[in-house]
Amino acid sequence: MAKAKALWVYARRTVLCCVVLTVCGAAAAGQIRYSIPEEMQKGSFVGNIAQDLGLEAKALSERGVRVISRGRTQYFALNVKSGHLITAERLDREQLCGRAEKCLLNCEVIADDVMKVFRIEVEIADINDHAPNFQAQAMELKISELTAVGTRISLPEAHDPDVGVNSVQSYGLSSNEHFSLDMQSGPGGVKYPELVLETALDRETRAVHQLTLTASDRGDPAKSATAQIRVLVVDANDNAPRFAQPVYKASVLENVPRGSTVVSISAIDPDEGSNSEVSYAFTRISAQGSQVFSLHPGTGEITLVGDLDYEETAAYEMEVEAKDIDDLSARAKVLVTVLDVNDNVPRIEITSLFSPVPEDSAPGTAIALLHVRDGDTGLNGEVSCSIPDHVPFRLQKSVDNYYSLVTARDLDREQVADYNVTVTARDRGAPPLWSATTIAVQVSDVNDNAPAFSQAAYSVWVSENNARGASVFCARAADADWGDNARVTYWLAEGELQGAPLSSWLSVQAESGAVHALRALDYEQVREIRFAVEARDGSFVSFEFY
Ligand SMILES: *[C@@H]1O[C@H](CO)[C@@H](O)[C@H](O)[C@H]1NC(C)=O
């Protein structure tokens, strides 16, 4: 029956949650159109053929009504009892029609008796039986931290074999502070997501951003898929090194050995890899400092390569620089204070010496002027001087580390003619350092001693008839003094014997004190001669009598 008529067929499928099926009867002659959702069970109702063709259901088999599908596969079958067109197998729209917007299957109903062919078109409607799918669930993006705001980076699309609202409809991005999502239309109206940089990145603040990209369809119920996007922020050398402190201070004993570490400086560059490598150098250092200190360019260790001397330089001020590969730099100060060590022995210098000193000098007479020096400071440089107790001298402190050595008592050359006075200078360091010097003090003679005979009187016996000029005696007087003061001369004191002066009887040799008889003596005439010999030194006279 070729009739142009519109047919609306409603079928209810309680199992499939009341899916409403719409069948559009074709306007064309002999064409009937049904619509069923995909994925229905085999044997599901498609349409009431008998009714729609105006045939008696019972008569269908008698009249030899058959269903023939074009192509090899029989998708549909006829239930001759009920007169319904049913599915011959489970129908998957995506398999049958792919991405085609409309999925139409055709079959023919042939009624043998009347030699009639009815064309039947069945639309397989899409159901949301696929979720969107990303090819990779995780991906990494490397983005330089210097990338300009507004830069767009394309993201992978998700695929959904369903069509229409059941296929991918929208994308979403997890909330974050740097990126937004924008859709771009590619050729053929394909929409793909793009990441848009909204605020500048900084690797030093955050090196990795974890984003979640969601693709959703609008099926009922809606399905979605997610992909994890790891954004690795690639370092750029956008940071200069920074010193941990603006000034490095160190105190070092002046006697620390070469090779010792004085101080270590350190600068941090927040960049990564070679961008964070820092090298160190002195930017300001005195000529003297550069001979004493060395800075390791890699470690920032300042070591001693020369000798420190507090007395020469008590402090060093240097400036150092830390630089990265692009010459981004920072500066810091290094202050090294040299600490005094008691390494200087006090030195005694004899500025003037008045020696020999006359033995009759009054106590308090200055003999020497001394100056003591000690290069150290504080107690290390505080010096005191001393001399032994047993010498007749004392030290008198004068101004400015000057001392004078003065006599403390009367001197007597005849007792001690020279002194070795040891002056000891000692500082107050711990342990103290000291030195000593010996001052040779000579006591010069003063004629303070008279010549003295060992006896007040001497008796000598002389045989008579001596030869004239014979030696009779030798007078000897000792004089404790020295030199001319001790040179004694002798002479005969005046006197008479038997009316003749003694000098006609005896002579005394002035230098030796030898007494000679000037006449031959006669016992019978002279039994005894009493005479006196006088002795005298340079300035002192002594009379001695026999
Ligand atoms: C003083 O020292 C000198 C040189 O060491 C020495 O010859 C002399 O005998 C010493 N004098 C005294 C009184 O010790």
From TrEMBL:
Keywords: Calcium, Cell adhesion, Glycoprotein, Membrane, Repeat, Signal, Transmembrane, Transmembrane helix
Residues annotated as domain Cadherin: 30-134, 135-243, 244-348, 357-453, 454-537
Keyword Transmembrane set for record: yes
Bilayer topology term: Single-pass membrane protein
The keyword Methyltransferase is assigned to this record: no
Subcellular location: Membrane
SMART domains, per the entry: CA (SM00112)
Superkingdom to which the source organism belongs: Eukaryota
TM regions (residue ranges): none
Main location: membrane
GO cellular component terms, semicolon-separated: plasma membrane
GO-annotated molecular function: calcium ion binding
Pfam families tied to this protein: Cadherin (PF00028), Cadherin_2 (PF08266)
Biological processes annotated in GO: homophilic cell adhesion via plasma membrane adhesion molecules
Function summary: Potential calcium-dependent cell-adhesion protein. May be involved in the establishment and maintenance of specific neuronal connections in the brain.
Protein name: Protocadherin gamma-A4-like
